[in-house]
Amino acid sequence: MDILRVMYDMLYYAGPILFCTLGGLFAYKVNVINIGLEGMMLFGGFIGALVIFYTGSYLLGLSGAIFLGIALGLLFSFFGITKKANFIITGFAINLLAIAIGYYALALMGSTDINIIGEVRTMSLKLNLPVLRSIPVLGDVLNGHSVLTYVAFLSIGLVHFIMYHTKFGVYVRVAGESPEAAEAVGINIHKIKYAAIIVGGILSALAGVNVAVEQIAAYTPQITAGTGFIAIAAIYCAAGSPMKSSAYAILFGLMQALSRNLAITLGGIAGLLHIIPYVTVIVVLTGIAISRHKKTNIRGYAHE
Amino acid sequence: MKQNKLNVVLHHFLNALIPIFFAFLLGGIAILVAGENPLETFYILFQRALFTERGLTRTLHYASPLILTGLAIGISFKAGLFNMGVEGQLLVGGFVVAVLGYTYSHFPASVLVPMLLLAGIISGILTAMVPALLKAIFNVNELVVSLLMNYAIIHVLQYLTTNVFRDPSRGYVSTHMIGSSAILSRMFGTRITPFFFIALFVFLVMYIVFNHSKLGYEVRAIGKNLEFSEAVGMNVKKKILIIMTYSGALAGLGGAGWMMSDRYAYTLNFSGDPGLGWDGMLIALLGAHNPVGILVAAVFYGALKSGSQAIAIHTSVPREIIAVIQALLILFLSIKFLKENKFLERLTCRFMPKKPEGEEV
Predict the structure, then answer these.
(1) CATH class for the region spanning B2-350
(2) What local confidence, expressed as pLDDT, does residue B52 receive?
(3) Domain count of chain A?
(4) Low pLDDT (below 70) residues in chain A
(5) Are A271 and B158 a contacting pair at CB < 8 A?
(6) Could you tell me the residue range of the domain that residue A55 belongs to?
(7) What is the pLDDT of residue B47?
(8) Which of B79, B195, B276, B320 lies at a CB distance of 3.0 to 4.6 Å from B219, suitable for a disulfide?
(9) CB-based contact (8 Å) between A264 and chain B?
(10) Contacts by residues B186-192 (CB-CB < 8 Å, ≥ 24 positions apart)
């Protein structure tokens, strides 16, 4: 197994997880768990691929996905915040709706996927940056990813900056940690929550475009394969810290890269290795729960 | 008192009816996109599914596993536990039954059928024990664990079906067909099999458990206030394990019965799309986590499934429309149109990260 290849794939697979993680943690900070990340990502990939299929324009596809991400964020917020729905169930409904509409549209189109290989040519979307390529050893690892993968990694710093060095970030954290205080100083909590969730919608949609358009150039309702839930696990593991959550997201990306690369070398048993990312997430969650559990073990259940 | 109870029933009824109306309204738009008349399509759907003998028995047949998965999700949600692994538990139950039903096909039906049903139940329980034990011992979030386990289970079963237990004589990936003595065969020349009556029997048992047993009371108490329940002396950890055992058993039985009454071999789309476990979630929501409600909702959903075949035959609307309507239903069911539901509120509170140092992972 080629180590450099695995590292390249780690960045490749970490991209979409990072988008969902960074998007989801804004909502997490305002006490809303957005289970719908997975569905928002799938919708993003769907509309991105669909628009490109009919127009041939990458930019139109990307904008379409972003608009849909905003719309889904608004929908989720309207249900979860304004209508006080159980947002776990709202999120799940968005996930199921994304799958259902995907299959319905494919059935109407009479196809099993939305194939846009002719329109996008994934190779041409891979950036070739001389600065990165010239780095010794790691050049091939860092260079040659698609645009949105780089955007995902740049977003780590950006989200950290927004969360800790801007007014919006402060408002988000205050609205989550102490809603009463936030209201007392005149912050409109509803607005902040809406904004936090919409950011998640946009970033998840980008994750979908990253996978469906840039990486495989074909949409099927299976492309997300739990990415949104893995992102939620990453957020949980790091209690919503942008840097730490991203580290977990990259770790889970590494596990996917390992499972794919091992699968190539091992042949027959390959299919079994697809469970590595999911099992890793469960093991990491358990490990963190044990350490937190030890710290706060007061009558077993008191602290949640 | 009586007036009050009637009010509650009416309340549940309207709370289910309004989302159904909205879901069909938006679903109707999707049908318009396909270039068909929504009203005509819905008429065909329900007319065929409920008012023809063939359709009605098929509806009840489809409702059978849904009653079980609906109850599986209902009991765990009622206790405030998010067992999102019902789909995976059902798949494991079905797969184990497929393998055993082929291996021991020489056994007589009187031995094999109970053995397989039991095997399905045990497989479901064992699968549910992973998130249950992690939750009870370490307080690991059961929602994320049980959810991600579904993906792992699908991959493992896909591997086993493709490589270990594959029937090479078939053109597609599938296990061997279970023996004829393992099949729950059709009755009275209709689509109904003994599985429907098994599901009904389990429904009666669960009705008593929910409403007339100490456990049912404790489930509701834990769902309403976990800390209080523990403070007054309930062994909450043990209860979590018991509730998840019930949930896993129901899901596993659902998988076993579906295998023995409909599929007869494990294929990669054994449970359909979105699987029977996910259907169970809609049913539990629609039935307000109440056994009678779940039974009615399961039959309603069975009718949707049964009618979807009629739609595909008699109109040009793809049968996938049913999944769209289902998802819309869940979306609108997440709002209580008439009253704040304290129970749902309580569930939601559990997921709010209050203090960074003490929160659940």
Answers:
(1) mainly alpha
(2) 84
(3) 1
(4) 1, 121-124, 267-268, 293, 295-304
(5) yes
(6) 3-295
(7) 86
(8) B79
(9) no
(10) B190/B53, B190/B54, B190/B57, B191/B54, B191/B57, B191/B58, B191/B60, B191/B61, B192/B57, B192/B60, B192/B61
Q: Is residue A304 situated within a structural domain?
A: no
Cα B210 to Cα B189: distance, rounded to the nearest angstrom: 35
Contacts of A155 (CB under 8 A, 6+ apart): A18, A19, A22, A203
**In-domain check, residue A302:** no
CATH number at residue A267: 1.10.3470
Note whether ipTM > 0.90 here. no
Distance (Å) of CA B358 to CA A131, A177, B236, B347: 45, 13, 19, 18
The model's pTM: 0.84
Mutate to test the interface with A, among B87, B135, B361 (most CBs of A within 10 A): B361
Let me know if residue A300 belongs to a domain: no
- The residue type found at B97 is V
Radius of gyration over alpha carbons of chain A, in Å?
20
Contacts of A71 (CB under 8 A, 6+ apart): A201
Q: Give residue B344's pLDDT band: very low, low, confident or very high (50, 70, 90).
A: very low
Q: What is the pLDDT of residues B72-99, one digit of tens each?
A: 999 888 888 888 899 999 999 999 999 9
Tell me if A303 is assigned to some domain.
no
- What pLDDT score was predicted for residue B360? 42
Q: What are the domain boundaries of chain B?
A: 2-350
Q: Is B319 helix (H, G, I), strand (E, B) or coil?
A: coil
Closest residue to B347, CB basis, from A88, A107, A268: A88
pLDDT of B337: 63
B319 contact residues in A (CB cutoff 8 A)? 107
